[in-house]
Amino acid sequence: MVSHQLKFLLISRIINPRLSAPKCNLYLSIELARQGCEVHVLTSHIHNHKLDLLRGQGVKVHITRSFFASKYVAPTIYTLMAKKLKRKYDVDIVIGNGYTLWDDITWIHFLRLPYAKNLKNIVLNKIPRRLLWEARVEKYVLGTSHRLWAVSNMVKRNLMEDYGSSEKKIFVLYPGIDVNKYRPLEEEEKERFRAQLGLKDNLVLLFVGRDPVGKGFFRMVKALKESKLTNKATLLVVGFELDKLQSVNLPDFNTKFLGVINEEEMIRLYQISDILVYPSYYDTFSLTVLEAMATGVVPIVSSTTGSSEIINNGIDGFVFHSDKELVEILNSIEKIDLDSMKRRARQKALQFSWVRIAKSLIEMLSMETK
Length: 370
Hints:
By secondary structure, the chain is an alpha/beta fold. It has two domains: about 5-175 and about 355-370, Glycogen Phosphorylase B (Rossmann fold, 3-Layer(aba) Sandwich), CATH 3.40.50; about 185-350, Glycogen Phosphorylase B (Rossmann fold), CATH 3.40.50. The chain has helices at about 20-35, 50-55, 75-90, 110-120, 130-145, 155-160, 185-195, 215-225, 265-270, 285-295, 325-330, 340-350, 355-370, and strands at about 5-10, 15, 40-45, 45, 60-65, 95, 105-110, 145-150, 170, 205-210, 235-240, 255-260, 275-280, 300, 320. The strands form three sheets. The protein has a seven-stranded parallel β-sheet, sandwiched between helices. A six-stranded parallel β-sheet has the order 12-11-10-13-14-15, with helices on both faces. Strands 2-4 form a two-stranded parallel ribbon.
């Protein structure tokens, strides 16, 4: 508890645990309230059970019209509403997410320009005009913010190099997870759920991502086909259906496409998986990686995602820098002590609870306001 009870306003057009930034806003709001802060949330889309969850923790939720959540309207309407709420409730800190102007803190969950540049270098021939236009708008919006919350050191570098942001404006604080909700299963229970999916004794690999191109689904498929895991593993794919792909020659082993699922179902899939393959071409910080580690899953992560910074390569997970390295890691899986690595992955994830994230943020801001 701080001597001065900080008052926060979090701006989140959507509150939905299926999406990374809205999920972060949801759980940070709850934890800040538990730490004794007065917390307000401004949103346009929220399910009733999440609304009840927030209000049950004492969070004051302000719901505005869904039309205002449009990324073309939000910079004007949401900015004006945030200013009004800040004055009315004497709010200390307004935390935006990159689409409102003059925030006290802008929480960076995604950056368009480095994302587009990475895809151009590897997948696309040129950066789409829409992304370039949105990146210019993004640069202007971020330029109005007093502070920039980078979710990884990679993001800090991107802000300085691609957006010209001052280093003095930026602080780095990794996102968190609910370490009690995301936890491993007992072995007997794990085997029971595996049997329900017909997984038996197979090594279970997991891929999670709505965008098969940007998240690296095709590079993973290519690596799996070149590896020695054929017929020795089951691949679970979450985020899209097989019929959404134009064409893909899948590796020669059991693959299950599970589509879009809810948070509880996602937790269960983490709990029955052995390895998360996360070969994204660019990700500021993937909550998927942290959630998987918390449930005892070994992550294999590309170096172009911010979450690779928390992994001790070869100890609690793997980080690869090229497609060749990904194949080499896949080929080494059967030679490692997977159970020990799973325990170390869980221990690493415990360092990133929302309790610690909220306390770190409060401590930093309290020192600045003294």
